[in-house]
Specification:
The chain has a single domain (47-247), classed as 3-Layer(aba) Sandwich (Rossmann fold), CATH 3.40.50. It is of the alpha/beta class. The protein is globular. Strands 1, 2, 3, 6 and 7 form a 5-stranded parallel beta sheet that branches. Strands 4-5 form a two-stranded antiparallel sheet. It has helices at 3-12, 35-42, 65-68, 86-97, 104-114, 130-136, 140-152, 177-181, 207-218, 238-247, and strands at 77-79, 82-83, 122-125, 160-162, 185-187, 195-203, 223-231.
């Protein structure tokens, strides 16, 4: 079935299963999650113990290994409401690969709250290569931008284009990801002097968003911050992974 048609059908005949656990339920209009999964999503918020700059896990009294390894190159500040796991991961995968637009609603709402009180000149979605966009039927980052714009009033600016097809980042080990996206993006609109908020669904190693931010900075952007729905394991250090795992342990 054509994916655009599927999206239209989703609007006319909304899903009657939770997008995270797939259980049948009596849904509220516009709600993608059952009550249990909504509660579980709340437990996945980025904790206060995260690095205040990049949101990666860190051990008290030690510098952030992600920042120290250059993970925030070209990016002035990162924002995200959730850790990428369980319900948040299920919603992002539904949005990214299943093209279920309803999954974007709770993510975008919380993303907008994560930047409450901060002013930006424009929201810039991380672009897809044209053939990948046709394959998926939409760019999930663009959809998130549109919904965040409705919440914040910030304009959406398609300032970047992807000029080279690349392998899926998720299919590559971390050390090969920077080279995979090197030179893959180009400026497509003026950004001189602007405070930009770059928007994507999830940050893992950060290779893609660093490349995008570098292009925006080279184009004269005054600042580039990053907003994602979730932050995933970057696998930079064994110690960092251990702390990530401690975040995922259920509370007593």
């Amino acid at each position: 079935m054509n994916r655009l048609l599927q999206q239209a059908l989703d609007l006319v005949f909304p899903a009657v299963r939770c997008l995270a656990c797939d259980e049948p339920r009596q849904i509220d209009p516009g709600s993608p999650l059952c009550d249990r999964c909504q509660l579980a999503l709340e437990q996945l918020r980025v904790p206060d113990s995260a690095c205040g700059h990049c949101l990666s896990p860190m051990q008290s009294g030690r510098p952030c290994s992600y920042c120290a390894a250059g993970g925030m190159a070209h990016i002035d500040q990162a924002f995200a409401p959730f850790v990428y796991r369980d319900v948040s991961a299920a919603l992002i995968k539904r949005l990214k690969y299943g093209v279920v637009a309803l999954a974007a609603n709770p993510l975008a709402r919380e993303m907008a709250l994560a930047i409450s009180g901060i002013r930006f000149d424009a929201l810039v979605p991380v672009p897809l290569y044209h053939s990948r966009r046709r394959e998926r039927g939409m760019n999930q980052s663009d959809l998130l931008c549109q919904l965040i714009a409705e919440e914040t009033g910030f304009p959406v600016l398609s300032a970047l284009q992807k000029i080279r097809d690349t392998k899926r980042q998720s299919s590559l080990p971390a050390h090969r990801r920077p080279q995979n996206v090197k030179g893959a993006f180009a400026l497509d609109a003026p950004v001189q002097g602007m405070d930009i908020l770059l928007v994507d669904d999830v940050r893992t190693t950060g290779s893609t968003v660093r490349e995008c931010a570098g292009v925006l900075k080279a184009g004269g952007a005054a600042s580039v911050c990053l907003l994602t729905a979730a932050v995933a394991k970057a696998r930079i250090q064994e110690e960092q992974v251990r702390i990530w795992n401690s975040w995922q342990e259920p509370s007593a």
